[in-house]
C-alpha cells in the first residue's frame, strides 16, 4: 500500500513537470518550485525512493526488527532498528523539507540572473568567442529599448496656393520603454528632418527636442527649446543620447515645421511628406489637423506590420476639410494601433482638387 502511494505521488510530480502545471501560476515561489523540479528531477526521484523505503521500514517494523536484531540473523543488538529508523526519519525530514526550502530560497529564476549570464545562456555554442558575445550583448541592449507608444500630430498651418506648398508642423511624442528590470540602457534616438522644398529660402525650424524619464524629472535632457533652430537645405540629423533607467520609460518629444509640396508628382518621392520611426513601435497613432480654409485630399502609404505578409497599404482619395465657419480646426485620425519596425516610413501625398 505504501509503495503504491509513493508511486502515485511520484507520478503526480512527473505529470506536473511534463505539463508545466506550475508555470500557469503567477506566484514567484511556485515558479521557483517548477525550476527546481526541472533541474533536480533525478535527485527528487532518488529521494522519493528513499521515502518509499522509509515507509516500508516503518510499516514492516514489527516483522523486520527480530530479523535484524535477533541472534539467529544479523544480531545487531536490541534497539538498533528503532534507533536506525529514528535517524533515517530525521535525515529524510532534514534533507527533504529543510533542503527543499533552502533550494527554493537560493534558486534564481532565469530572469533574475545577471544580464551577461542571461546572454551567455543564449550563446551556448562551443565555438562562440568573447567578442561575438560582446557584440550580441550590445545588439540585445538596442532591441530591449523600444517605443511602447508613438503619437504623431501633423498640423497644416498655412498654404501658398501660387507656389503649391503648405507649411506643416509636426509634433512627435514617443514613450520609449526599457524592457529590462535590472539594467540601465543607453539610448540614441535620432531626430531627422529632410526638407524637400522651401518658401523664399525658408526651409523651416525646430521648436523643441528633448527627452525625460517618467517619474524622474532629474533625468532629463533638452536639446532645443525656447529659441527656434532654423533648418537649412541639408535638414537636421541629430542624435539624442540618453540613459534609460532599469524598468522605466522615457518621453521623447520632437517638434518642427517644414514646407511641403502639394499637387506634385506621385512618382517623385520628394513630393510625399514622410515620417520615420526611430525603433520598433508597438502602438503608433497618426493624427492630421487642418488649420487652413482649404479642403485637402491626401493619399497615405505605409507597411502593414499587423498583416502576415507585411504588405504595403495605400489609402487614396482621403479628405480633411478646412476650418469651420466659427474658425474651428478639423482633426482626423489617419492611423491607429499599428505596429512599425525600425526605419519604417509612412508617406503622405497632399493635393487639392480644383
Summarize model confidence as the mean pLDDT: 81
Distance between the termini: 94 Å
Strand-residue proportion: 35-45%
Provide a count of the helices.
7
Number of strands: 14
Order of helices and strands: HHHHHHHEEEEEEEEEEEEEE
Could you list the spans in which at least 5 consecutive residues all have pLDDT below 50? 21-26
Helix content: 25-40%
Biggest sheet layout: 8 strands, mixed
Which outline best applies? Answer: elongated
Radius of gyration: 34 Å
User: Helix/strand/pairing class, anyone?
Assistant: alpha+beta
What does this structure look like?
- This protein has 354 residues and is an alpha+beta fold.
- The protein is 30% helix and 37% strand.
- The protein is built from seven helices and 14 strands.
- It has helices at residues 2-18, 28-39, 41-59, 61-69, 80-106, 115-122, 130-143, and strands spanning 145-160, 165-178, 185-193, 204-213, 216-224, 229-230, 236-244, 249-261, 273-276, 281-290, 296-303, 312-320, 330-340, 345-351.
- The strands form three sheets. Strands 1, 2, 4, 5, 6, 8, 10 and 13 form an eight-stranded mixed beta sheet that branches.
- Helix 1 (2-18) packs antiparallel against helix 3.
- The model is unreliable at 21-26 (pLDDT under 50).
